[in-house]
Amino acid sequence: MTNGIYIGDAARQSGVKVPTIRYYEQIGLLRSPLRSDSNRRFYDTADLRRLAFIRHARELGFDIEAIRALLTLQDNPSQSCATADGIAKARLIEVDQRIRSLLALKAELEVMIEECRHGRVADCKVIEVLADHGECQHHHK
């Protein structure tokens, strides 16, 4: 093999685990790899860049279909970036919603803790709220 690296080295260099690389190949995010004479997968620099792109997008919380769309855009760089902007804006909306939900959850936990401070379990707001969702001030999923 002279034109690439084997899957284990690709995993180490890209930060993507071997089974995940195989999964990305299976679902079409990564092309089917070239094979050595002994039928071992090997990858080139473009594959490593694509894996890094996918890994970074996953770290930012993009789902597989959004990543697929972004990769398609990346593969056709002469297109408008409006679609990429739309995908990123949709992700930002999800993040904002999650932040609001987490802030409400934080406030609920702070109330529970404050109302239970140094009391007895029989009067513990933490136990009471966890036992009866109706007591919860924050309505979560």
Mean pLDDT: 87
Amino-to-carboxy terminus distance: 52 Å
DSSP strand tally: 3
In angstroms, what is the radius of gyration? Answer: 23 Å
- Briefly note the structural class of the backbone: mainly alpha
Name of the level-1 CATH class of the largest domain = Mainly Alpha
Uncertain spans: none
Strand order of the largest sheet: 1-3-2
| Major sheet characteristics | 3 strands, antiparallel
Query: What is the percentage of strand-forming residues?
Result: under 5%
**CATH architecture of the largest domain, please?**
Orthogonal Bundle
In helices, the fraction of residues equals: 55-70%
Describe the structure.
By secondary structure, this protein is mainly alpha-helical. It folds into two domains: 5-61, Multidrug-efflux Transporter Regulator, Chain: A, Domain 2; 85-135. The protein contains six helices and three strands; from the N terminus they run βααββαααα. The chain has helices at residues 7-14, 18-26, 45-59, 64-75, 82-116, 125-131, and strands at 5-6, 34-35, 41-43. A three-stranded antiparallel beta sheet has the order 1-3-2. The protein is elongated, with a radius of gyration of 23 Å. It starts with a strand and ends in a 10-residue tail after the last helix. The mean pLDDT is 87.
